[in-house]
Amino acid sequence: MKNFAVKDIPEGSFFSEPVYLDERFIITAPEVNFSLELLKTLKNWEFKEVMSDGEPQEEYSGAEEVVSEEGVAEKSLLTDGNEIHNAEKLYNDFLKYVENLFTQLVTKKELHFSQVSERVKDLVDVTRENRRYILRVMKNDIAEGKNYLASHALKSTIIAIIIGSFVKLPPHRLIELGVAALLHEAGMIQLPPQIYMADRSLSDQERKLIMSHPIIGFNLLKNSDFPLVVSLAALEHHERENGSGYPQKITGEKISLYAKIIAVACSYEALTSSRPHKDAKDGYSGMLDLLKNEGKQYDDTIIKALVFSFSIYPIGLFVLLSNGKKGQVIDVNTDNPKFPVVQIFGELTPDGKNKVLQTSQEGVYISRPLQKDEIVK
């Protein structure tokens, strides 16, 4: 294998063969690009070189084929690296839009439903058509600094749209849900950043301010002529089924459907993302936390929709398989959320395609998620 200086690897490039830190530890498969986050991680951990039999290239062309544990081809899954590259561009474009929207909201306190809904319609289309790729790109978005609210809003919106699609919301309602999810923290943005980004214990007054953000968001959206169902979702997204939420402490059927979906979406996003005061959980651990539904905080139907549309081992999760091999979850199994589709690291089928496995109870299954130091070390 040849050595490649990390500093010379172009951001977003694809290697034609798997990339390793040494002869044992794989970093990326051919269809996974060298994102900015990965390059930063390697540099932060002072890895100066990686190894590969391939070469970096701007685009990846290839297909994956799902095979059984016996090596028999089962079906074709076109997980083209170009699709991931395109999804990354679309995701970053949407993130920039959200950042600009929030800046406009803070500086001008100005919002227009028609403009936001038009962009959300595009996001709904992209998410429904490219769910597998968008979720894998979304997993690599590591928000830093003030950007975390925009990142949280966009990720929560994508998750909410996927849940909404699973429960068969019609297109116009998916757009309303997406607008509500994108702006569910509109009230938080009006608060001083040093409060909602604090990595310290808040004073009683600061906690009261934080708990007032749903009311602030509701008033802002209502006064900007947003539909009542959208404004109510912003007001109620911290309400809980058992009445333990805020600001109204309403229960069960009194909570609007959009708010129920956003509550699950943004809770899952928060569990699996870093915050100033906590580290991120992996997708599997975050899913288990929500499945426990301690105190019956969340609507069981919405929790079920999350699990079946994401799987217990969500797309993008790095996993150890029961046969000792490592891989990454790339698609859900709609029949059973315990057994998603996994791409095997460093293995190709005889015709040169990336080897992908449908896990199953009878055959190869996921033993556990990989820890960070097992993926890159």
Helix-strand layout with pairing:
Elements: E1 2-5, E2 14-15, E3 19-20, E4 26-28, H1 36-44, E5 49-52, E6 56-57, E7 64-67, E8 73-77, H2 81-108, H3 113-129, H4 131-139, H5 148-166, H6 171-182, H7 193-196, H8 204-211, H9 213-223, H10 228-236, H11 257-271, H12 283-292, H13 300-310, E9 318-321, E10 326-331, E11 341-348, E12 354-358, E13 366-369, H14 372-375
Parallel strand pairs: 7-12
Antiparallel strand pairs: 1-5, 2-6, 3-4, 3-5, 7-8, 9-10, 9-13, 10-11, 11-12
Helix pairs in contact: 2-4, 2-5, 3-5, 3-6, 5-6, 5-11, 5-13, 6-10, 6-11, 9-10, 10-11, 11-12
Provide structural commentary.
The structure is a single chain. The chain is 44% helix and 14% strand. With 377 residues, the chain is an alpha+beta fold. The chain has two domains: 59 residues, no CATH class; 230 residues, Orthogonal Bundle (Hypothetical protein af1432). Helix 6 packs across helix 10. The chain starts with a strand and ends with a helix. About 5% of the residues have low confidence.
| Shape descriptor | globular
Class from helix and strand fractions: alpha+beta
Q: Could you tell me the number of beta strands?
A: 13
Order of helices and strands: EEEEHEEEEHHHHHHHHHHHHEEEEEH
Helix content: 40-55%
CATH-derived architecture of the largest domain = Orthogonal Bundle
How much is the radius of gyration in Å?
A: 21 Å
Task: Write the CATH fold name of the largest domain.
Answer: Hypothetical protein af1432
* Strand order in the largest sheet: 8-7-12-11-10-9-13
CATH class of the largest domain: Mainly Alpha
Strand content: 5-15%
Look at the structure and name the CATH superfamily of the largest domain: Hypothetical protein af1432
Biggest beta sheet attributes: 7 strands, mixed
Q: What's the N-to-C terminus distance?
A: 18 Å
- Quote the average pLDDT: 85
Structurally, the number of domains stands at 2
